[in-house]
Amino acid sequence: MEVLGLLIPVSLALGGLGLVAFWWLLRRGQFDDPEGDAHRILREDYDDRPK
Amino acid sequence: MTALADPPRASACPACDAAPLAQHMAGATAEAARLMIALPGIHCAGCISGVERALLSQPGVSDARVNLTLRRVAVEADPEVAVETLCTALERAGFEAHELDAGILAATEVDARGRALLMRLAVAVFAMMNVMLLSVAVWSGAEGVTRDMMHWISAAIAIPAVIFTGQPFYTSAWGALRAGRLNMDVPITLALALAVGTSLYETTQGGAHAYFDAAIALCTFLLAGRYLDHRTRATARSAAQELAALEVPRALRMVGQGRTESVGVADLRAGDRVRVLPGGRIPVDGVIRDGATELDRSVMTGETLPAAVALGDAVHAGEANLTGPITVEVQAAGRDTELARIGDLVAVAEAGRGNYTSLADAAAKLYAPGVHIISALAAVGWFIATADLRVALNIAAAVLIITCPCALGLAVPAVTTAASARLFRKGVLIKSGTALERLAEVDTVVFDKTGTLTDGAPEPLGLEELSAEAQSVALALAQGSAHPLAASLARGLSARAVRPAAVSDVVEHPGSGIEGRWQGQVVRLGRAGWVGAKALPTTATYLAVGENARVAIAFADTLREGAAEVVAGLHAQGKRVILLSGDMEASVRHFAARVGIAEVVAEARPEAKAEAIAGLSEGGARVLMVGDGMNDTAALTAADVSISPASALEAARAASDMVLTGQTLAPILDAMETAVAARRRIKENFTIASVYNVLAVPLAVAGLCSPLIAALAMSSSSLTVSLNALRLR
C-alpha cells in the first residue's frame, strides 16, 4: 500500500500536466478554427509558415 | 459602389470610416491594416489554398489567413490596399466575397466567455477523472485509514474544483434568488453546497459515504451542456453580426463646390446635402434638391415598378437610386428616419412575443420546486424517524444529487447544437434558441413576393415578337444605361444573339429613359409618358423609333432559386401556403399562378401585412412568415416564427428567427424537417431524464443511494441523452 503514496501524486501531476497543456493550446488559439485545421492538413501546397 | 468616388480616407479600411469605434482602433495601428472578407462559398482544403494564394499574389498584402469555421479571411495589408480590389481578385478566382465591417466584428473575435467556459469544463473533467479514480478504491471496499485518505485527497481536489468550475451556476442562482424567482441553477447550487458540505463533515468523522465524485461530476455534465448552448448561440450571433457587417452605411456629403466627402451615416445632420449615385441606397429621409431619377421602393412597399422623382420630391432611407445622380437635403437621419421608426415598431411587437414558453422552461417550472420539496420532506421524515441530523442531511444531499437536472441541462442544448450544426451546413442560420420548437408547430406558411420568392432581376417577355430592327435598336439603347430594366433587356437580347444597331449620340435622361439617333431618326427607350406610348398595367419599358408605332416590352419577375420547389414541397406536406404582397393585384396574381400558390393577398401595406398575420394566428394557425423587406418586418415579428433570405434588409433579418445564408430558398424545407425531428428528440430526452429520476429518487429517499449508485445514475442518464441528441445529425 505504500506505493500509493507515490502513485497518487504521480497520477495527479500527469493529469495536471495535461490540464496545463490544454490551457496553453486554448490560449494559442488552436481551437479557433477546428474545421479549417482539419482541412489544412490535406492541402497539397507546402505551408512554410504554419501557425 | 458609392465608395469608389471617395476622397482620401481616415483609415485604410473604408468600413472603418463608418464605425467611429473602429476608426478609433485603426488610429492605433495605422501602418498594417487588418481587413475582413466574408467567403460564404468556401468548403474545402482547395478553397483555403485558392483564397490565400489569390490574396497573397495581390500587391501590398502581407498575410492572409482563412478561418473555415467562420467562413471568412483575415488579411494583413498595407494601408493603401482597398477591400474592393481584394474582393474583385477573389471573385475573379471564383470565390464569392463580401467586405465585412471590422468594427462590428471586433467584438466577436475573442470569444472570452466561450474560452472561460471551456477552461472551466477542462478543469472539471480533470478533477472528475481523478476523484472518480480515487473513488473506485472506496467503492471496491476500502476501509479505515485507506478510505479516509481517499476521501481527504478527493476533498482536496474536488472542493477547489467545485468552487472554481461552478461559478456560472452560483451567479445565475444568486441573480434568480435576488429577483425572488427559482431557476434550474438554484437546485444545482444547493445540491453542490449540500453535497460538498456533508461529505466534508462525513470525512472528518471517518464516515463511509462521501459524495465528492458526484458533486464534481454534476459540475462537469452541466458545464458541458452550458458550453454546447453557448457555442450554438455564439455561432448564430457571429454569423448574424457578419450579415450586419456586410452593410457599411456611408454617405457622400457635399462640401463646397461639387466636392464630396465620405462620412458615416451616423454623422449626418438635418440640413446637410448628400449625393446619391445610381446604384446606391438613399441613406436618409429628405427632399431632392438637384437632379431627377427613378427610385426602387420595393424594400419599403413591395412595389416592383420604379417611381420617377425629381426636384422637390421626398425620398426615404432604404430606397435604391436607379438611374440618375441626385442631391438630397437631409431632413431626418439615423434613428429619426421612417426606416428606423418601422424598426422601432418591431421592437414593440417583439416584446409581445416573449409569451412563448419553451419546453425547457416548462420543465424547469415543474422541476425546481418539486426537487426542493422532495428533498426537504425526506430530510424531515428521516429526522423524525431517527432523530439524527447527520443522517437526515445525508439523505437530503443524496436526493438533491440524484435529482439534479444533469440530463435536463443537457437535453435541450445537445439537441439544438446538433440541429443547428446540421442546418448551418445546409445554409440556415438559427438566431433564436426556441425558433426550432416554434417552427416544428407551423401549419401555415406566408410568403412575401418581391425579393423573397423573386430575386429582383426582372425578365423581358415576348422578345421574339419584336422586329429584328427594333431588337437591335433596343439593344444599342439598353446598353447605354445601368437601369435594372435596361440591363436585363440588354442581357436578354444579347442572349438571342442580336447585334446592336449603330445608334449615335446616346444620352440617358434620368427618370425618363435613353435617347439616341439612328439612321437620321430620334430613337427612345424608356417610360411610357416620355416615349409617347400608352402605359401597360405591368412593369414594362417602351421603344420609339422615329414616328413609327410605339413598342412595349413587358417584364416579369424572375423566380428565386428553389422557390417553386419549396412551394410544391410545402403543399406536399399539407401546409397552407399564402402569398402576401404589397405589389399590384394583376402582377401578384400572375406570379402566384406561376409558382403554384392559390391564396393571394395583394396591395397590402406594412400594417395590413401584420394584421393579416395576426388574423391568421387568432384563427388558431401557427404561421411561418418568409419575407425580406422593410414592409415585412412587422409581419415577420407578428408571425409565430419567421425566416428571411440573406439578401433581406438588416431590419428584416433582425426581426427574423432564422436567416438563409445562400441564394436559394430550398433550405426552408430542410429546416422544417429538422425542426420536427429536433422537437421529437427534446421530448424523448425529457422522458429519458424523468425515467432515471423516477427510478432513482425512491432509492435516495429510502436511504439506499450510495455514492456509487449516484455516480452511475448521473453518468448513464447524461450519456443516453447526449447520444440520443447526436442521432439527429
Automatic annotation (TrEMBL), chain A:
It comes from the Bacteria. The chain crosses the membrane at residues 6-26. It holds the Pfam family FixS. InterPro entries: Cyt_oxidase_maturation_cbb3. Keywords: Membrane, Transmembrane, Transmembrane helix. Signal peptide: none annotated. This is Cbb3-type cytochrome oxidase assembly protein CcoS. The gene is ccoS.
UniProtKB/TrEMBL annotation, chain B:
The keyword Amino-acid biosynthesis does not apply. The keyword Ribosomal protein does not apply. GO terms for cellular component: plasma membrane. One of its GO terms (molecular function) is P-type divalent copper transporter activity. Residues 33-98 form the HMA domain. Its main location: membrane. GO terms for biological process: copper ion homeostasis. It is found in: Cell membrane. The chain crosses the membrane at residues 117-139, 151-170, 182-201, 207-228, 366-385, 391-416, 689-714. Keywords: ATP-binding, Cell membrane, Ion transport, Magnesium, Membrane, Metal-binding, Nucleotide-binding, Phosphoprotein, Translocase, Transmembrane, Transmembrane helix, Transport. Belongs to the cation transport ATPase (P-type) (TC 3.A.3) family. Type IB subfamily. This is Cadmium-translocating P-type ATPase. It comes from Gymnodinialimonas ceratoperidinii.
